[in-house]
Amino acid sequence: MAEFGVIGLGRFGARTSKELLDLGHRVIGVDSDEKAVEAMADVLTHSAIADVTDEKALEELDLTNCEVVLVAIGEDLQASLLCVLHLKTIGVKEIWAKATSKSHHQILSKLGVKRIIHPEEEMGIRVAQSLNYPMVNEYMSLGHNWFCVEISIGEYLKGKTLDDIMPDDSEFFHVLLIKRRDEVTVTPSLSMTLEGNETLVMAGSLKALKSVAPKLK
Ligand code: ADP
């Protein structure tokens, strides 16, 4: 269990706070809008109505023990940047922030923000990926054009082995695990026969993953 600070309890900040609380963490939520704080006060570990552009007010919130403070103010660029600056001054070690534009991103990055989130853009990419490959449940970028993907396969692959679905450039493709009902097989052998209706977790280069996709449809 860790403690997190969430500044700005709009849709993004409120939803992130709820998820963190559900995961068993402590969350200090702050917003200058009384209504936004009231709506979350019952579920948050601590809540406060404060204008975070005011360094003194921010200091009184005692956020220095938080593992990460998330600045979830998107629209008001000045408030977002001032808040990050003040958090740095009062000694908050790790700051994550939401950005709404390229210049917002650039300044946050220069200020040393560890992770900059573009919720709409990230969600847009995810939705496009799911539309493109409907069988992909989850995917994660590993950098250098490598991805880890989780896919669900249907009856049509029953009787095939993993070897049957391997791409030509197999050194850039790995099946990490297969899940059947409650049973998980880690790093399955290529001779393993598929039953259909399984979940596969694979890692590979984008090129290799794309060449495998038609075999999984
Ligand atoms: P979303 O799209 O997630 O709703 P917004 O940028 O619209 O994001 O909302 C950000 C939240 O941050 C709002 O609830 C707003 O009241 C709050 N906020 C904006 N400026 C300040 C500030 N100076 N101090 C504290 N909270 C602020």
UniProtKB/TrEMBL annotation:
Pfam families found in the cross-reference section: TrkA_N
InterPro entries named among the record's database cross-references? NAD(P)-bd_dom_sf, RCK_C_sf, RCK_N, Trk_Ktr_HKT_K-transport
Q: Biological process (GO) annotations?
A: potassium ion transport
Origin: domain of life: Bacteria
Q: Which residues form the RCK N-terminal domain?
A: 1-117
- What is the designated name of this protein? K+ uptake system component
Record organism: Idiomarina loihiensis (strain ATCC BAA-735 / DSM 15497 / L2-TR)
